User: Fold this.
Amino acid sequence: MLMRKWLSGSRLAVALAMIGVACGETSHPFEAAAGGASSGGSGKGGAINAGGSQASGGGGGAGTAGALQTSGGAGNGGMSGVAGAAANTGGASGGAVAAGGATSGGAGGVAGSHAGGRTGAGGSSGSSGGAGSSALAATPPMGWNSWNAYGCNGLNEAVVKSMADAFITTGMKDAGYEYVNLDDCWMDGRDSSGKLKWNASKFPAGIPALAEYIHGKGLKIGIYETPNTKTCAGLYGGYTAGVGSVGHETTDAQTFASWGIDYLKYDKCQGQLSAFAVMRDALKATGRPIFYSINPGDQGPFCTPTNCSLNLPMTANMWRIGFDISAQWSEVIRLIDANKEQYGGAGPGHWNDPDMLEVGNGLNDVEGRAHFSMWAIMAAPLITGNDLSKMSAATKATLTNAEVIAVDQDPLGKQGRVVATPGTNLEVWSKEMSGTNKRAVALFNRGSASASITVQWSQLGLPQGAATVRDLWAAKDLGPSTGSYTATNVASHSVVMLEIVSSP
Ligand code: GAL
Assistant:
């Protein structure tokens, strides 16, 4: 059974009706860790905690894994850009991220200059960074989060460790996934000095030890809080130990930094929009690069880049654009539609978040692949929400497909958008990719019958002549095509994912 989740807005009444119920439900009981995976990554602190506290840092080693992950480069791009410190000189070298061989300051420059372009504020500060691992948020984050599969009561240290193990044993880490994120219900109020406590029965060794374990595998750890006095589980689920961070931002940010936290999901839960900037500044003040993911919506119209009083790209590395996902096709469609018009808000350092993935949680394999394809073409965060220690071969193949992940992680950082609707329930999506005249294209059949879908080069802004076409899921070159390409028999609820490159 799928974990119930907190809902908001029009569905708040449903959520309220679930008070006292939701927190006690998990999709399945915890089962023993996959076990045995030894550290395959760099040691604690090695590639993880370095990187310097500000944007321009980093000696910039060579990138690993080609376009999938940047490595080497440096620093805290998005948030430094957000804070608009001193002028940045690194922007032009952003291309170095694409090449994987970051030059000093390049990655920070991407985010900084982008944010600056939107606001007039300027890029990175000038402090040097040391040997950074990946530029924070230069591409959409990839990882895992506990909520979709384990909810409130199912979260514990053994589960999280087993997921970190599975990152290694399943090839998820090699595919580019790096964040292992604890969602709501890890906490147990505050101690007498006001410092957050972890729930000792769920986390007997403690969060710092868990962070060390995760770092030891060359991965990063994320955590959850809210800008209110309670977390969402505290508000809606009766989890009384779920205290929020409002009024404690400085202490909590410092606590997270001291525990070795690399990522914060900050979930509105009826807090104030203005409080998001308070936590942003508190995180920045710690000097530790901490990816900042926010959920600025809870009731009424959702706060998105096109309608929010909050300047989202200036506030966070990523923001939710809709209410909680669940593992149903209609929910995947709802979030795609909610994200469709938001493409202008996305770019290196700051991303739209249509919520976590439900691949492997109940969608069939075709739908799971379509879901993943659409998140990739939308440059959405790839935060998985399934039990990684028990995924089917099909789920694993979907989540680790290098060519589709490369679409999501393309360093140009464009969010794809609909360029044609050639029939009812049929959509052509295009994402401009780095390189010359290159597009990722999704031929998306949302309907219940199979259909042919044609993409015209003119819809993609490509010259009319010959272009090479590659089917990414089939890993097959389809040869040159002139002016258009037609995929026949695109199955119901599926996506044909193409890379189209115009011949010179
Ligand atoms: C919701 C959020 C979910 C999950 C949950 C925890 O507001 O959208 O993703 O974090 O709170 O209580």
The chain has a mean pLDDT of 79. The chain is about 25% helix and 20% strand.
